[in-house]
UniProtKB/TrEMBL annotation:
Highest taxon in the source lineage: Archaea
InterPro entries xrefs: MetI-like, MetI-like_sf, NifC_ABC_porter, Sulph_transpt2
UniProt similarity note: Belongs to the binding-protein-dependent transport system permease family.
Mode of membrane association: Multi-pass membrane protein
Record protein name field: ABC transporter permease subunit
Length: 260
């Protein structure tokens, strides 16, 4: 009897939260007038921020994949000194607010020898478009590493042992055996990384600044227009971000777990 009551209560709470979440998301689409949303979407500021967001997110996602695959493989397959500390540090950006990560990056590239070295070679990160890419990489990379690492952990190491016994080197085994088997997880991680890059706000605001029509991404457009009191533009930015996230989640659910 108690088990049945607990089951009903659990299902009720699940439906209740799902309904409230659906209601809040729907209000973003249903409350504003369609004409206002349409005119805001074709506003030059919106088009500019959408282009900046797409270009920077595509570049950032490619770099994130380049780091997350070897890092995820190393964590899933090898034992090395300080592994638990490395995993904890890599997971830190998931736990603390983006603004804190952005502040840390601002100090790293603006107040340390790394920033001085980059500036010596003419590379400016702080308050530039390059800062957008750097901020997106540091925000999305921990998520991508977790997915890729989990994917490699699900692959039976016996396949790699058989490959090594047939004469393949460690890298050849990784390239010809492990990597093809992990393609679904890698694809899923790229989708999540892209969605995280598109939605990065606090880190971009702190490192690249929120300069109008320069370092303006979609979340920055939402923030700036809310500050100005231009709700139409702010809501339209939110709708575009919502649609991108929705498509990303659909693709993730479809291909996650080796279903293609």
């Amino acid at each position: 009897m108690q088990l049945i009551s607990f089951k009903k209560m659990s299902i009720f709470l699940t439906f209740l939260f799902t309904f409230l979440l659906f209601l809040s998301i729907s209000s973003l689409i249903l409350v504003p007038k369609f004409e206002d949303v349409l005119s805001s979407i074709f506003n030059p500021e919106m088009i500019y921020s959408l282009k900046v967001s797409l270009y920077s997110s595509l570049i950032s996602t490619g770099i994130v994949l380049g780091f997350s695959i070897p890092t995820g493989y190393a964590i899933s397959r090898y034992s090395f000194p300080g592994k638990s500390i490395v995993k904890a540090i890599l997971d830190l950006p998931i736990a603390f607010p983006e603004l804190v990560l952005g502040l840390a990056l601002l100090l790293l590239f603006g107040q340390t020898f790394i920033g001085d070295i980059l500036e010596f070679f003419g590379i400016k990160v702080v308050f530039t478009k390059l800062g957008i890419v750097v901020a997106q990489i540091f925000t999305a990379l921990p998520y991508a590493i977790r997915i890729v690492c989990s994917t490699f952990q699900d692959i039976n190491p016996r396949y790699e042992l058989v490959s090594r016994s047939l004469g393949y080197s460690e890298f050849e085994t990784f390239k010809n055996v492990t990597l093809p088997m992990a393609r679904s997880g890698i694809f899923a991680s790229s989708i999540i990384a892209f969605a995280r890059c598109m939605g990065t706000f606090g880190t971009v605001l702190m490192l690249a600044g929120g300069t109008y029509m320069y370092t303006e991404t979609l979340p920055i457009t939402l923030y700036l227009n809310m500050s100005y009191g231009n709700l139409g533009m702010a809501i339209s930015s939110g709708i575009v971000l919502l649609m991108i996230s929705f498509i990303a989640i659909l693709i993730f659910e479809k291909y996650e777990g080796g279903k293609f």
